[in-house]
Each structure stands twice: as structure tokens, then as C-alpha cells.
Write a structure and sequence with these properties.
The complex is a heteropentamer. By secondary structure, chain A is an alpha/beta fold. Helix content of chain A is about 40%, strand content about 25%. The radius of gyration of chain E is 22 Å and the shape is globular. Classes of the chains: A alpha/beta, B alpha/beta, C mainly alpha, D alpha/beta, E mainly alpha. Bound molecules: adenosine-5'-triphosphate (2 copies) and magnesium ion (2 copies).
């Protein structure tokens, strides 16, 4: 499905990604974990064409998208739920969700998906007409996730979706991710909550300072000593 | 430690149009305590911080700090029926402070979405927070007649950076720091205002369990080092339960529980609204 | 004041007010999407007049065709300006784009002076607009009535477009966050071009309605109307289309009335004072949304 | 009370002036060729260029000097004017012609004065240009005169009430309006409306509605050409029948249109005035010059009509030329100071009448030409001469 | 670099600068364009730096610069025009009795020009500073226009001479005057920015909410910055009046504000040294270097194409846009010229050079 090879990214002088390669096979949930500043978000952003890549290739369904523009990548079916929520503050919740489905034409399906999002996050339905900018941090996070679901992607990339969410909702989030995956969407997930991320993942990568240092199935990594020590706080 | 009251929020209500973000909140912080404020998303926790720090003025209620009323608003007439609480309807001339005045009184805060002075260096970020205690006026400061004071501000800033382990980042631009360090810097900046009460809004957000543990130690460290009281919002239960003396739980703007961590953890209302049951 | 005089004042206020409104929309739309005060807008308006002269006077093309040529070239000019002067600055500090806009404004004015000389040129007379009509003992040309109608029609259309279409929503999204908008699959460049197309289209139309009763064009002819319209946009709350319209009419009328009262010397002072006073009470203009930043 | 000029000059040191070396004498042409007054300024430049073509050299004390024009654009902008003037000075001009528009001349006045370079204004009619400035001369009459002329004209035509429209912040417009009002009232008329507008204003409907309701016999509008072309159609559209009067700036073919029919304005010169042989010769010659290059015609508002300002441009050049000639046989270097001193004594028959300067440096003139636009003008693109107007001092 | 060597460098640099100005005075004629450009550039530098204090350092986007300069210029002119010249200047309307016998020395006029501008800034600051970004910009722009129109309006005829403007304004007592005054003013602004108050201004620029949470009184500090900036704008206006010798209200159009903003942005928003450099560059380019473009030129019998009046401004606007497009952050960005910076610049260069040798 998605394949990254030898990806290098620089921010000015900072070498943020140092030749990483990873793969998201069909119908799977892949997790990406690592400390702050390891380059996880940068990886997702470079897939979306939001940061200039100096070297490497990215292909999606056999198509080279390394040099594609963001809007085309979205058109191909990759969607990012970005770090820091990035909801449109002057638009209402309802409008934010509509924009999530910007490229879709199937009116009926969109309606269904909207209903689904409201079921997943009832809070959003309560506040349907509130401007997103005035929502609480967690509510915005829910909206951001809901909005990316609305795009009906083939590959959904979530950057720390549980950030700022209450424990109850965090649990929900992981079951929601499962549900989305069951609906046939591939997931690439970044999470600080490494335990939950590894539990849900079919396969996972560990990043450190711009390199992928470890990879394996979720279970393997959960059992790995180094992972335990560094990310699970045990 | 004798229990000496530091912050008291009485009957605070905050309404945004139809949304009642905070409903008749009563809350107290005593000297030296670390208090947790938890609750589901959109429960009104950040709003409570905003009301305490003067970002919003409450639609009803009163806030006192160190035995002094710092903000109050009791509408009367038609409005009074809308609010409940001891003093509801008692019309007082409302006292609307600006955030800077509150900070001067000794309450400092961090933000849920980090708000550093992004383009300035770490050192400058902290040094700016020293400005509120400046004694010289703009003329003496401009013509460098306050060298001693300036020198002292710089020294204190350096000391603070040392304590918070930010010394080696001193000349880095704030926005280039890794996320965790940015949180540290926000706390350092708040501490530089020499507060008696520190408000932390989700300090551990975006940290992994390991980092959040480190932060926990750090927070209890600064409590003793700086003789602080702390009120913190957090969704990481390990953090909250591990560090707080008492916890308040909000849901839909209303206080639904209050108590020591173990009580809260087992409070069915809290479990239902917020914690959920562990599988 | 006699009833006749009062009626004439109303006509004068309405005709200038509705043109201000029409052009103010251009400012407000571009501002709404790029957060850019497009200082060059008034000059695009001026260039539109030269295009019309070029087509109708210099090449004797019939007025309806000239109109089409004029509108198309104005829109093209607007889009080219956007591509050359604003697009490369998407990620630059806001003030740089503003300077770029000021630069474009200078350039258009200086170009016009260089190419067409500083002497005024006569704007061609468009037969149907110039027809005079008498109401009681006040005579006025048809354009006085056509202008407000056109303005209202376009405002309603635009508001519907922005409120209810996906394009409109995309425009509002782009205005806040380019990157997030891209992540929705929105083609931000097309959306921005589209905004410029509408803005310039209205400027072209406004130019025709404006210069028909004031048939003299010179390189600085766009600068003062530009400023007034821009103020109108701020008055109504910059970014808000109904705001721009209301602002345009208020400025048009207040200017006219203050002149009617015999204080023409202070009419602009009055306008600016009014603006500042309104902003005191409504810091984001009459219709501007008060976007409280959530802390 | 303007006696001792040197003291009032405001400059401490006496200027040294510019010394001519080599066999080229540079004369600066300080005119707006862009900006609000770019049109009129260009016409003055044309006059000066033509004069230079006719009188390219001068013989002084046995040397033939080539006279070279140095043109600079002051952009009709008062702050740009000063640096523009300075750039002329830096090129070593020995005298300056210009400018159209009093404001820029006033602004640059002290620059010329402190450099010790004399300037001969062509059509800058505001008294302030020469007042208190020992180096500024001018070839035209002054606004107090012009204002009085127009007021007298209005009075003679039997008008009792007048409205005035002037430009806020513009010294030419406001000054002339002021003199008109003063004389008109002194002559027993009444000013029924006194309106102002901002620079670059183009909508005059409100002002005109106001004026219409005050129902004046005539409207005096001293303004730029740009404003004239805007306000005339609006006057017509508002159905105002009052006589429109204006100042010298309106003498430009650009204003001729059916809406302009009937306006009257004062000017310095009439190309059909056969009483002055110098003028007749100039008119034929200048028309030929205009027609020799299509660009000249463009700059002259697309006609070959001779504008008064062109004539003044010519006369200003001639004044300097005469001053230079009078240096022949005198001892000492050719310096700008010497030219200034020579200018004081210049006396010749110019295109716009006899020219000699009074102690202020103003040309002594007592006649203005009143012109109008009639139906014929629409096709001929020429103004119709009505009469000359003088005032008793 | 050590502190001591920096001080020495600074002193040397100042001496060199003074030397350049001195030698321009010595070795060029009175009429040299270089003098004009230097003097005008210095005035614009002060105007730009004072605008930068507000726009670049405090983050308040003001477009009122021309208005405050007008206030300064008029205050200066009204108070210092010699009593003997007043009848000439106020020849049409007469002079108000209060002013008829007022003739202050230039230095007093300069200070009062600043004070007057600061005073008006204080009055309008309180309401206007509550506005956010562009609304603040428009309100200040409106204020500037109000000043410009009122100054030329009839009720003030006996003070400002209405539309006719003022002339015979005392010129600089010496060639060095503007440089000395501008130097002092800019140094003061520089010191202010380096002080604790300057840091507070920067904090407001970066994030108002956070600044307020750090105990910085927004209203007070914005007001302070606004007043101080206006004070120096007033002085710049007075200097301009001295330079021009004659002013009218139209000397201070919105365009003047735009031009100064342009200098600020080209120099780098938030950089004092940038503003200074760009003030001189822009002035020199516009008023001096490009002037030849306005003149038809014949080389070897062929007319050089395009050259005719008006072309200079076309080229100037194109250059301006090219600079903004390709040098987005301006010449200096937010940085200042520092000895460390220069030192690094050269050592980096030489190190590269060294690598070739190895
Ligand atoms: N816009 C930028 N400019 C400069 N450096 C950047 C930029 N964005 C990220 N970096 C740097 O690149 C590195 C990788 O950042 P990235 O955001 O990808 O980390 P991350 O793994 O997502 O961390 P986090 O857990 O904090 O989100 C970090 O060192 C960061 O400081
Ligand atoms: N300015 C505002 N206008 C309208 N509604 C607001 C505003 N600020 C907050 N709210 C609403 O008030 C409620 C409380 O918000 P608050 O930010 O206090 O929540 P919170 O408890 O901090 O939640 P989280 O844990 O998600 O950060 C939310 O539902 C939010 O939508
Ligand atoms: Mg990240
Ligand atoms: Mg919150």
C-alpha cells in the first residue's frame, strides 16, 4: 500500500529524518512510536508533501507520490489528522466536518459518515453549531479525528489522536481506530501512549532521532526490553 | 503544615451565550497543596483557570486569593434568578482584574496550547517574566541607570535556568526546543514571576508515560524548592493520582466530586463520567 | 432643505455608496482569504477604466464587446498580480505581502503614467447607462439606479456562494490555515485565484459604473476611491461581505450628508472620526465577528 | 511689510552660487511630468524645449556657450520636489525654469536660494513663490491679480452671487479661491457657498447638490485639469446652469467637451491675439514644433493648440537667455549669482506680453485673457478668446 | 569576541562613520547629491526606526506615521519661524496674536515637536490601542488623515496658514545637525529596546496573552511604545520640515507612511540596523541613482529605448517588488548587525577558504 524508502528531510540545518524506510501493508494498523522530537510527525508531514524532501521515495499503491502536491495526495486517498488539531476556528463543527468530505461526491454516504462521527463523539452533535475555535482542547481533538474520518480515506494517518482527551475517551479512541480499520481503512498511528499503540498495532516501528531503530509486530515490541524501558515506563 | 487558605473560588459561574461552561464552582487551594482538577473534555477546567487568572471575568461569583478578593461579579435584577449559590443576586460592584494584575498578586499559569515567545531565546523568555517586578521606570531603564537591577534580573534568570536544567539551551530559540523542553520552559517562565500559586494546564500532554513520570518528580520538586501551591489540570491519571493532595472533578461545568486521590479513583460518578472501567 | 434637495442628496449618497460597496467587496474578499490589505485594488479599478478606453475609444469596439474585453482583461490582470506578487509570499511575514501590494499599487500607477501620460482621458459614454431620467425636477442618469441594484444582486449571490457552497466553505477554511486546508484536499491556489477573479470582476464592473458619470480617467483616479472603499470594508468588519456593503453605503451617505450640511472641508475628517468611534464600540467593525481567541 | 529680504531669507550664509566652466551653460527644467499636474508641467517643458531649439547658444565675451537643458521631474509632490531640485543643483545648472504648480516651487524655493541659483517660474501664480526669496522670479501674473480679474469679470457680467470650490491642502487652489472671494465681496458680490474637496477626489455630487440648492450666479473652481475634467460632467449631470469660472490651469485641451461649453477662465496668453507680433511668430513656430513629433502632440493633450503655459515656458527661457546676453561685455565669471543680478534688469517683449521683474521678482503684468469653450471648440479643440481683463490698481 | 574588543570596534566604527560624514562635507560641493541623500536618508532612518519600534518590536501595526510627522513638523515650524518672516508667511490670513511674537530656538522647537506628537499619541492611544491588528492600522491611518486635513482647514488658518502651508522654516544650523540628532534619537531607541521595557514590548509582539499572563500590563506598555514612537516620529517630522524649508499638509500624505513602512520592511521588520541601511539605500536609489531613467538619452545617435519621464518610478516599483519577493525578510530579518555576527561571517568565510588550501 504505502511504501517509504530512504527518506531524508532537513529543516534548515537540522537533519530531521535520516533515511528511514517503512511500509504500511493493506488492511493493517501500523504504529509509530518514539520520544519527543524523534521525527514522527515529520514522517507523516513528508508523506503529505508538507515538508520538502531531500532524498528518498514514497509510493502509494504502486504510484510514486514523492513529488505530488498535497491536494493530489489527499485525492489519492491518504489523509492526515495533524498534530495540534488544526481545526478551522471560524467554522462551525458541522462545517468543519463538511470540509473533511471536501473531495467526496457521494452525498448519501457522506450523510451516513457524519451520523457515524456524531455517534462516536456525541459531544460534537451537542455543539454542532459552535465555532470550532471556542471548543475545549479535547473537543477540538475529537473534531479533528472526526473530520479526518469524513474524508473516507484509504490510508488514515493519525498524529497523537489521544492528546488531551479524557481517559474514557482515550479508551474510545482506540476502539474507534479499530472500527475504522475494520471498515477497510489502513491506519498509520503515532501515539505517546505506547502501550495502547502497540497493543492495537499489527506492526510497529520505533523511531529515535530521525532513524528507525526497531520494528516488529505490536506484541514483539511490547515484549522487548528496550521498548519497555524507554516507552512504557516500566 | 497548618492549613492556611490561599485561593478560594466561590460560586463561580461562566456562561458563553447558551453554553454554561462553569456552573457554580466552589474550590479551595491551601498553602503548600498540590490540587488536581480533572473532568471530561469540555467540562470547564480550562475555563476555571481562565476565570481565576482574569482572562474571563465570571458571570457570577467571587474569587479571593491570599485573603483578598481579586475578582467578583454578582449581577442583580433579572439576572439573579439565573444563578445559584450563597451570594447569588447580591449586587456588588463587579471587580474585573486584568490577567497581569492577577499575575502580580502571585498566581502564574501555563497554557494548554503552549504559548511561548516563539522567536525569542530561552533566556529572554524567562527574563521577560521578571519584568513585572521592575522598579525602575522607562527612562532610567533606557538610560541604563538601573544596572544593578538589570544585573540582578539576569542573575536570577540564570539561576532559574540552572535549576530547571535549561542552561544549555539558554541561547536557543524557544520554538526550536523539543516539546518536553518547551513545557519545562513554560513552567520556568511562570516561576520567574515568583508566584505563590502555580496553575498548570495539562503539563504532561503529549508526553509518554516515562516523560510524564519525570515531570511528576519535577513538579513535586519545584513545590518544595519554590514553596509553591499548585493547581493542575491533567488527563494522565498516573500523574494526577501520583502527585495530588486533593482532587476536584468537574463535569458539564459542575463539581461532581472532591477528595483525596483514592476516594476519587473509586467514586462511581467519576468512573462513569470520566475514568471509565478498566477492562 | 427642500424636499427636492433632500432627494438629490439621497440619490448622490446612494450612487456613490453603492459603488463603494461594490469595490469594498473586493477588498473584503481578498482580505478574508489572504489577510492581505490589497492596496492595489483601487489601481486595478483604475486600470479597468483604461482597458475600457483602449477598447471603446482607441479601437472603436461596440460597448457591449468592450465591456467583455474590459472585464476579462481586468480579471486577468488581477490573477496575474496574484500569481506574481502574492503567491510567492504565501509563507512570508504578513507585512512583506503588504509591501508587495503597495509595490503593485505603485507599479500600476507609475505604469499608467508612463504609458498613458498624467493627463486625464475621457471615459467613453455607454449609451444605456447614460440615459438621463427626470424624477420631479431632479434629473439623474440611469446609472444611479442601476448601480445599487447590481450591487445588491451580487451581494446576495456572493453571500449565498460563501455560506452554502463548498467553494465558499473552502474559501473560509483557506483564510485560516493553508496547511490544514490542503490536508482536506482543497486546492488553495485555485481558491485564492477564484477570490481574485470575483474581486476583480466586481472592480471592473464598479469601474464602469463609477466612470460613466465621472468620465475622466487618470493614473491616480483609483487611489482615493480605493482608500474610501477600503475604509468601508473595515467599517463593516473586514472579511464580511454584508459588512462591506453596509460600510460602503454608510460612508457614501455620511459623506454626502456632511457635505450637504456645508462642511465639505471636514467630510473626510467626519468619515474617519465616525470610523474610529464605531471601532471603539465594535472593535471589529459593524459585522466583523469577534473572534475571541480561546486561551 | 516685506522690505529687507536678505534678513528674512532664513539662511545664515550668503550662497556662493554656481560658476559656469567650459562652454556649456546648463539650465534646469524643474517641472512635474508625472503626478497630479503632470499634464500641464509637460506643456511647459515643451515651451522650454522649443525655446532652446531656437536659442541654442549664447555669445558672452567672445565665447559661444551651448545652452543645455537639464530636465527633472518633481512629480507634483512637495517632498519629492526638494530632492528633484537638489539633483538639478548637483548637475551644476546655472539657472532654473519652473515649475508648474506653486506648491512645488515654494517647496524647492529655499533649495535654489541656498544654492544661489535663480529660478524663473512660468505659471506658478501663488505670491509665496517669490515672497521672501531673492532667487525666484516668475513670468506670469499672480493669484491676487488673477482672483481679482475673475471677480471683476464676474461682476462685469452682472453676477451677484458666487460659489467657490477649492482643493483642501493645495496652495494654488486655496490661495486663488481666497483672492477671488475677497475681491468678489469687495466688489459687492456674495459668496453663497464655499466648498472644498480632497486631493484625487472624483465624486462631487454632494458638493454640487449643495451648490445647486444655494443657486449661485456663477461658480469659481480653481483646480487641476484632472479635477476639471471630472467636475464638469457632474455639473452638467446635476443640471446646474450657473456660469463656471476658473483659473489659468484650465487652459488645456483635455477639458474640452460638451459639458465644458460656456466655462470662462483667465489665462496668460491667447494664440489668436494678433496685436503681439512676437506671439504670432511663436505660435506658428511652436505649432510646427509640436507637429514635428507625434510624441509632442500626445504630451499636448492630442492637439496642436498652443497652451499658455507653453508660452510661459518659452518666455521663462527667454528671460534667462536675455539675462545671459546682458552679461556680454561685463567683467567677471559667469555665475548663477551674476545671472540672478542680470535677471533683475531684464526687459523684453515676450510671447505673453512685455516682461520685466519688480522688486519681488514678479513679472509686471496687468492683463489677463479670458477664454471660453464654445460649440466650435468641440471640433477645433481650441479655446475661444472672449476679452482681455484688466483691473485698476 | 570579548566585551572590550567589541567596545573598541564600536568606537572605531563610529569614528569611521563620523569620518565619512565629515569627508563628504569636506570634499563634496554644497550641491552634491550625496549630501542630500545622506541628510534625507538620516531623517527617513529615524522615521523608520521609530515606526519599527511600534510595528516591528511591539507588534502594533500602525499606519499613522505621516500624521505624527506632520504634527512634529507643524509644531516645529509654527514655533520657530522667525518673527520677522511671519508677515510674509502668513500673508493671506494673518498670524494669530498668540504666535505673532513666538520664536523659539531650533532645539526647543525640536523637543516640543516630539512632545506634541507624543501628547496627541497619548490622547488617541487610550481608545485606539484597544483595537487589534488591522483595525488598529486603519484607525491610525484615519488619525493621520484627520491630522492632515485639519492642519489645512480654515479654522487653523492663523496658526498653520491653512492650505498655503508654512515656509521660511529655519534650516539646519550646520551640515552635521541632522546626523547628530538622528544618531542620538536612534541610540535612545536602541537602548530602550535593549532594556527590560523593550523586552516587554517584544513579548507583546510575540504573544499578547502570554505576555499578559507574565504580568505585563498590555495597555500601559502599548501606550508607552506608541507614545515613544510618536515622539521620535515628531522629531523626524521636524527634521524633515527643517530640511524642506517649506511644508504644507500635502507633504504628509498616506503615501509617506507607506514609503516609511516600505523602508522598514525592506530593512527587516524588527531590526534597527536594517531600517537604517534600507533608509539610505531606498533614498539613494529613488532620488539619485535611478534619476537618469527619467531622461531621454542618446548613445551613439540612438535613442535608448524606454527612457523618458516616469520610467524611474516604474523601475523603482519593480525593484521594490523584486526585493520583497526574493528577500522576504528584508535585508536584516529580525537580526541586528553585531560584532559577533560580523566576526562569524568572516571566520566562516575564511574557514571555507582554508578548506580549499588543505
Ligand atoms: N518547522 C521546523 N523547523 C525546524 N525544526 C523542526 C521543525 N519541525 C520539527 N523540527 C525538528 O525536527 C525534529 C523532529 O520533529 P517532529 O515534530 O517530527 O518530532 P516528533 O517525533 O513528532 O515529536 P513530538 O512527539 O514532540 O511530536 C525535532 O528535533 C524538531 O525540533
Ligand atoms: N469563548 C467560548 N465561547 C463559547 N464556548 C466556550 C468558550 N470557551 C469555552 N467554551 C465552552 O466551554 C466548555 C468548557 O471548555 P474548557 O476549555 O474549559 O474545557 P476543558 O475542561 O478545559 O476541556 P479539555 O479537557 O478538553 O481541555 C466547552 O464546552 C467549550 O466549548
Ligand atoms: Mg509530533
Ligand atoms: Mg482544557
Amino acid at each position: 500500500m504505502l511504501k517509504i524508502e530512504n527518506l531524508n528531510v532537513f529543516y534548515g540545518g537540522i537533519h530531521a529524518l535520516r533515511g528511514i524506510s517503512l511500509e504500511v501493508p493493506d488492511k493493517k494498523i501500523i504504529s509509530l512510536i518514539g520520544a519527543n522530537g524523534a521525527g514522527k510527525s515529520t514522517t507523516l508531514k513528508s508523506i503529505m508533501g508538507l515538508v520538502p524532501k531531500s532524498e528518498g521515495t514514497i509510493s502509494f499503491n504502486e504510484k510514486d507520490i514523492t513529488a505530488s502536491q498535497t491536494k493530489d495526495i489527499v485525492g489519492d486517498g491518504i489523509v492526515l489528522c495533524p498534530e495540534g488539531r488544526r481545526v478551522f476556528p471560524d467554522l462551525t463543527i458541522a462545517e468543519n466536518l463538511t470540509l473533511g468530505a471536501y473531495l467526496r461526491k457521494d452525498k448519501e454516504e457522506i450523510k451516513k459518515d457524519r451520523k457515524w462521527v456524531y455517534e462516536l463523539f456525541p459531544r460534537l452533535l451537542e455543539r454542532e453549531w459552535q465555532l470550532a475555535g471556542t471548543l475545549s482542547g479535547g473537543e477540538q481533538q475529537m473534531l479533528a479525528v472526526g473530520r479526518s474520518i469524513m474524508s473516507k480515506p484509504k490510508l488514515l494517518m493519525l498524529d497523537e489522536p489521544s492528546l488531551g482527551l479524557a481517559p474514557l475517551v482515550v479508551k474510545d479512541i482506540f476502539s474507534i481506530i479499530r472500527q475504522i480499520n475494520d471498515a477497510g481503512v489502513n491506519i498509520l498511528l503515532i501515539e505517546q501512549n505506547a502501550k495502547a499503540a502497540l497493543e492495537i498495532a499489527d506492526y510497529a516501528y520505533v523511531m529515535e532521532t530521525g532513524n528507525i531503530t526497531l520494528s516488529g509486530t505490536g506484541k514483539e515490541l511490547l515484549a522487548s526490553d528496550s521498548v519497555k524501558k524507554a516507552y512504557l515506563g516500566e | 503544615m497548618s492549613k492556611q487558605n490561599l485561593l478560594r473560588v466561590s460560586d463561580a459561574t461562566m456562561q458563553f451565550g447558551g453554553v454554561v461552561a462553569l456552573n457554580n464552582l466552589n474550590l479551595e487551594v491551601n498553602k503548600g497543596e498540590i490540587i488536581g482538577l480533572i473532568g471530561p473534555n469540555g467540562a470547564g477546567k480550562t475555563t476555571a483557570f481562565n476565570v481565576i487568572t482574569g482572562v474571563y471575568s465570571p458571570t457570577n461569583g467571587e474569587i479571593s486569593f491570599d485573603e483578598e478578593i481579586i475578582a467578583s461579579n454578582y449581577p442583580h435584577g433579572k439576572m439573579k434568578a439565573l444563578y445559584s449559590g450563597q451570594n447569588a443576586g447580591k449586587y456588588t460592584k463587579s471587580l474585573v482584574p486584568t490577567p497581569d494584575k492577577i499575575t502580580r498578586k502571585g498566581i502564574a499559569r501555563t497554557f494548554q496550547n503552549i504559548r511561548l515567545f516563539k522567536d525569542l531565546t530561552v533566556f529572554e523568555n524567562v527574563l521577560i517574566a521578571k519584568h513585572l517586578n521592575i522598579k525602575s521606570n522607562v527612562f532610567t531603564a533606557t538610560f541604563m541607570l538601573n544596572r544593578k537591577e538589570e544585573q540582578q534580573m539576569r542573575e536570577e534568570t540564570m539561576e532559574l535556568l540552572k535549576i530547571l536544567d535549561l542552561e544549555k539551551h539558554k541561547d536557543d530559540i524557544a520554538s526550536s526546543l523539543p516539546y518536553g523542553k518547551q513545557r519545562h520552559l513554560e513552567i520556568a517562565r511562570a516561576l520567574a514571576t515568583k508566584p505563590k500559586l502555580l496553575l498548570l494546564d495539562e503539563p504532561a500532554a503529549g508526553m509518554n508515560p516515562q516523560e510524564s513520570d519525570d515531570l511528576m518528580n519535577f513538579v513535586s520538586q519545584i513545590r518544595t524548592d519554590f514553596d509553591l501551591s499548585i493547581l493542575t489540570i491533567e488527563h494522565h491519571m498516573q500523574f494526577v493520582m501520583g502527585i495530588c493532595d486533593r482532587i476536584y472533578v468537574l463535569d458539564y461545568g459542575t463539581l461532581i466530586a472532591e477528595g483525596i486521590p483514592s476516594e476519587i479513583q473509586n467514586n462511581p460518578k467519576v468512573i462513569e463520567a470520566y475514568l471509565g472501567v478498566d477492562e | 432643505m427642500t424636499a427636492t434637495a433632500f432627494f438629490s442628496y439621497c440619490l448622490a449618497g446612494m450612487s456613490i455608496g453603492s459603488i463603494y460597496a461594490l469595490i469594498a467587496i473586493g477588498y473584503t474578499m481578498v482580505y478574508g482569504i489572504l489577510r492581505l490589505i490589497n492596496f492595489a485594488h483601487g489601481d486595478i479599478f483604475m486600470m479597468a477604466a483604461y482597458f475600457m478606453i483602449f477598447a471603446m475609444v482607441d479601437h472603436s469596439i461596440p460597448w457591449y464587446l468592450s465591456m467583455v474585453i474590459m472585464i476579462v482583461s481586468t480579471v486577468l490582470l488581477g490573477v496575474v498580480i496574484e500569481k506574481l506578487a502574492y503567491k510567492p509570499l504565501r509563507t512570508a511575514p504578513r507585512m512583506s505581502i503588504m509591501i508587495s501590494a503597495i509595490g503593485v499599487s505603485y507599479l500600476l500607477q507609475n505604469m499608467a503614467t508612463y504609458l498613458f501620460s498624467a493627463l486625464p482621458k475621457q471615459y467613453p459614454s455607454i449609451p444605456i447607462l447614460n440615459k438621463t431620467i427626470d424624477i420631479g425636477n431632479v434629473s439623474t442618469s440611469l446609472v444611479t439606479f442601476v448601480t445599487p441594484i447590481i450591487t445588491i444582486v451580487f451581494v446576495v449571490l456572493l453571500m449565498l456562494l460563501i455560506k452554502y457552497t463548498k467553494m465558499g466553505m473552502a474559501m473560509r477554511a483557506v483564510s485560516k490555515d493553508f496547511e490544514a486546508a490542503q490536508l482536506m484536499g482543497i486546492k488553495i491556489n485555485s481558491v485564492i485565484s477564484f477570490t481574485f477573479i470575483i474581486g476583480c470582476f466586481l472592480a471592473a464592473l464598479g469601474s464602469m459604473l463609477y466612470f460613466t458619470p465621472r468620465p475622466s480617467v487618470f493614473p491616480l483616479a483609483g487611489s482615493l476611491p480605493g482608500l474610501k472603499c477600503f475604509i468601508a470594508a473595515v467599517f463593516g468588519g473586514i472579511g464580511s461581505i454584508p459588512g462591506a456593503v453596509v460600510g460602503g453605503f454608510i460612508i457614501g451617505f455620511s459623506e454626502t450628508l456632511i457635505k450637504a450640511a456645508g462642511y465639505s472641508e471636514f467630510s473626510d475628517v467626519f468619515t474617519f472620526v465616525l470610523l474610529i468611534v464605531v471601532l471603539m464600540f465594535r472593535p471589529t467593525g459593524l459585522f466583523g465577528e469577534n473572534l475571541a481567541e480561546k486561551v | 511689510g516685506c522690505g529687507d529680504k536678505a534678513k528674512e531669507d532664513g539662511k545664515a550664509q550668503t550662497p556662493t552660487g554656481m560658476k559656469v566652466t567650459g562652454d556649456v551653460i546648463k539650465i534646469g527644467v524643474f517641472e512635474p511630468t508625472t503626478g497630479e499636474n503632470g499634464g500641464g508641467g509637460m506643456q511647459e517643458v515643451l515651451g522650454a524645449r522649443y525655446a532652446n531649439q531656437l536659442m541654442p547658444t549664447v555669445d558672452i565675451n567672445g565665447t559661444t556657450y551651448k545652452i543645455q537643458l537639464e530636465e527633472v521631474d518633481n512629480q507634483s509632490d512637495k517632498s519629492a520636489a526638494v530632492t528633484a531640485a537638489q539633483s538639478l543643483i548637483s548637475k551644476g545648472v546655472a539657472a532654473v525654469i519652473g515649475s508648474y504648480g506653486s506648491g512645488v516651487s515654494i517647496a524647492a524655493g529655499s533649495t535654489f536660494a541656498s544654492a544661489g541659483v535663480p529660478a524663473v517660474g512660468c505659471s506658478c501664480t501663488n505670491p509665496q513663490v517669490t515672497l521672501g526669496n531673492d532667487f525666484y522670479f516668475r513670468a506670469c501674473f499672480l493669484d491676487p491679480f488673477q482672483g481679482t480679474v475673475m471677480a471683476s469679470y464676474a461682476k462685469d457680467a452682472g453676477y451677484k452671487t458666487a460659489a467657490v470650490i477649492s482643493q483642501n491642502g493645495d496652495d494654488y487652489s486655496t490661495g486663488l479661491a481666497g483672492y477671488f472671494k475677497k475681491s468678489f465681496e469687495e466688489l459687492g458680490g456674495t459668496i453663497v457657498a464655499d466648498e472644498t474637496y480632497q486631493t484625487n477626489e472624483s465624486d462631487f455630487n454632494a458638493i454640487l447638490t449643495k451648490i445647486k440648492s444655494s443657486n449661485p450666479d456663477c461658480i469659481f473652481i480653481p483646480s487641476s485639469i484632472n479635477t476639471a475634467t471630472l467636475i464638469l460632467p457632474q455639473i452638467a449631470a446635476n443640471g446646474i446652469k450657473a456660469q463656471v469660472l476658473a483659473g489659468d490651469t484650465w487652459e488645456n485641451a483635455a477639458i474640452i467637451s460638451k459639458d465644458a461649453v460656456g466655462v470662462a477662465f483667465s489665462t496668460f496668453f491667447d494664440e489668436n491675439d494678433s496685436s503681439n507680433p512676437v506671439a504670432a511668430k511663436f505660435v506658428t513656430g511652436f505649432k510646427g514644433y509640436l507637429n514635428s513629433d507625434p510624441k509632442n502632440i500626445t504630451f499636448n493633450a492630442n492637439t496642436d493648440t498652443v497652451a499658455a503655459v507653453s508660452a510661459l515656458g518659452y518666455d521663462s527661457y527667454t528671460a534667462i537667455y536675455e539675462a545671459l546676453k546682458s552679461l556680454d561685455g561685463k567683467e567677471g565669471d559667469i555665475t548663477s549669482i551674476a545671472i540672478r543680478d542680470a535677471l533683475k534688469g531684464v526687459s523684453f517683449d515676450g510671447v505673453t506680453g512685455h516682461i520685466s521683474f519688480d522688486k519681488n521678482g514678479d513679472a509686471i503684468k496687468d492683463t489677463a485673457y479670458i477664454k471660453t469653450v464654445d460649440q466650435d471648440s468641440l471640433t477645433s479643440k481650441e479655446f475661444k478668446f472672449i476679452k482681455t481683463q484688466t483691473v485698476k490698481k | 569576541m570579548t566585551k572590550k574588543s567589541k567596545t573598541i570596534c564600536t568606537i572605531i566604527a563610529l569614528i569611521v562613520l563620523a569620518g565619512i560624514i565629515f569627508s563628504v562635507d569636506e570634499f563634496t560641493t554644497q550641491s552634491s547629491m550625496l549630501r542630500t541623500v545622506l541628510q534625507l536618508g538620516a531623517i527617513y532612518a529615524l522615521a523608520a526606526v521609530s515606526m519599527n519600534l511600534l510595528n516591528g518590536f511591539t507588534g502594533l501595526f500602525s499606519l499613522g506615521q505621516a500624521g505624527f510627522m506632520a504634527i512634529g513638523a507643524y509644531t516645529f515650524a509654527v514655533l520657530t519661524i522667525p518673527v520677522g518672516s511671519k508677515p510674509i508667511v502668513y500673508y493671506l490670513y494673518g498670524v494669530s496674536d498668540v504666535l505673532a511674537n513666538v520664536e523659539l530656538p531650533s532645539w526647543a522647537g525640536l523637543i516640543l515637536a516630539g512632545v506634541m506628537a507624543a501628547f496627541l499619541a497619548a490622547i488617541i492611544g487610550a481608545p485606539v490601542l484597544r483595537l487589534k491588528s488591522d483595525y488598529f492600522a486603519i484607525a491610525t491611518l484615519g488619525f493621520s488623515e484627520i491630522v492632515r486635513i485639519l492642519v489645512a482647514s480654515s479654522p487653523f488658518n492663523k496658526i498653520t496658514n491653512g492650505s498655503l502651508g508654512l515656509k521660511l522654516i529655519p534650516a539646519y544650523s550646520s551640515y552635521y545637525t541632522p546626523f547628530i540628532i538622528v544618531f542620538i534619537c536612534i541610540v535612545i531607541i536602541g537602548l530602550l529596546i535593549k532594556s527590560s521595557y523593550g523586552r516587554a514590548f517584544k513579548a507583546i509582539r510575540e504573544d499578547e496573552i502570554a505576555a499578559e499572563a507574565m504580568g505585563i500590563n498590555l495597555a500601559k506598555h502599548k501606550q508607552m511604545s506608541f507614545i515613544i514612537s510618536s515622539f521620535f516620529a515628531g522629531i523626524a517630522g521636524a527634521l524633515l520640515a527643517m530640511y524642506l524649508g517649506a511644508i504644507t499638509s500635502t507633504t504628509f500624505p498616506i503615501m509617506l507612511t507607506y514609503n516609511i513602512l516600505l523602508i522598514v520592511v525592506i530593512g527587516g521588520i524588527g531590526s534597527i540596523s536594517g531600517s537604517i541601511i534600507s533608509a539610505f539605500l531606498v533614498t539613494a536609489a529613488k532620488e539619485w541613482w535611478l534619476r537618469f531613467l527619467d531622461q531621454t538619452m542618446v548613445i551613439a545617435g540612438i535613442h535608448v529605448p524606454f527612457l523618458r519621464t516616469g520610467f524611474r518610478m516604474v523601475v523603482f516599483s519593480i525593484i521594490l517588488m523584486v526585493v520583497v519577493l526574493f528577500w522576504r525578510k528584508g535585508i536584516m530579518g529580525q537580526k541586528e548587525i553585531t560584532w559577533d555576527g560580523i566576526y562569524r561571517f568572516f571566520t566562516r568565510k575564511s574557514r571555507k577558504g582554508g578548506a580549499v588550501n588543505e
